[in-house]
Amino acid sequence: MRAQLARVDAVLVQALIAAALSFAHIHDIASAAGQDGWKAWAYPVSVDLLLVAAWRRLRSGEAKASGWCWFVIALAASLGANVATAGLLDLDQVPAWLRILVAGWPAVAFLGGTLLAHSSPTTKPANDTEVIEDQEDAPEPTPEPPAQPAIEAPPERPAVPVPTALVDHARKVAAEHHTRTGTPIDTPTLRARLGVPAPMAEAIAAQL
After folding, report:
1. Quick one: 128 exposed, middle or buried, by C-beta within 10 A (0-12, 13-18, 19+)?
2. How many helices (H) and strands (E) does the chain have?
3. Measured CA angle at 192 (ends 187, 193), to 5 deg
4. Rounded to whole angstroms, how far apart are CA atoms 199 and 165?
5. End-to-end alpha-carbon separation of the chain, Å?
6. Of 1, 30, 131, 164, which cross-links 35 as Cys (Cβ 3.0–4.6 Å)?
7. Are 48 and 23 in contact (CB under 8 A)?
8. In the chain, pLDDT over 70 holds for what percent of residues?
């Protein structure tokens, strides 16, 4: 536990030292560019806040492109101030382009902070759209025609008993009719020749 606390304390102390040095360098650049008093101290605050906002956006995993863009801008401002104060730039004779950058930084920091804080990534809605599209693409159900009642077969007529002698007589009548006309005898003619009811005539004709 003590070893872990010692590592945490060392990292925290290192971070505080780095932040203080970077804070002072940005203050010195802003002061040399004509921003005196409280304004020179506001510049490092805006740079650090933009770095923190961009880092939080990157940690959230949403809109990483925007987070990386503003993180690089804020990091470039911080590193630029650190390098410029390392003796590479005469703070008594600050070039005009640096004065322009320092003067325009508040607008850039405000724009970046606003976009990072209030912009939300565009996410696809949950599976509602897919469900709607599936419902739109699905064919409409075709109404089934009403079931028609089954057609009942006509009841079979009971078999009519026909005497054998009557059947033999009917064969003779049918043979005589065929010999005379050349065509088979039909049921109505057979009925008329025999003088029997229609059911019996049909039964006799079925046996011929």
Report:
1. exposed
2. 8, 0
3. 95
4. 17
5. 118
6. 30
7. yes
8. 75
Torsion of CA 95, 100, 101, 103, to 10 degrees: 120
pTM for the whole thing?
0.47
Looking at per-residue pLDDT, the higher value among 69 and 148 belongs to 69
Tell me the per-residue pLDDT of 5-39, one tens digit each, with 9 for 90 and over.
555 677 777 777 777 777 788 888 888 888 888 88
> Which residue, among 159, 158, 151, 193, has the nearest Cα to 176 in the 3D structure?
193
- 135, burial (CB in 10 Å: exposed 0-12, middle 13-18, buried 19+): exposed
Question: What Cα–Cα distance (Å) separates residue 66 from each residue in 20, 44, 55?
Answer: 27, 21, 11
DSSP state letter for 34: T
What are the structure tokens assigned to 19, written together? 């932040």
Q: What is the DSSP string of 98-165?
A: HHHHHHHHHHHHHHHHHHHHH-------STHHHHHHHHHHSPPPPPPPPPPPPPPPPPPPPPPP--HH
**C-beta atoms surrounding 100 within 10 Å:** 11
What type of residue is 136? E
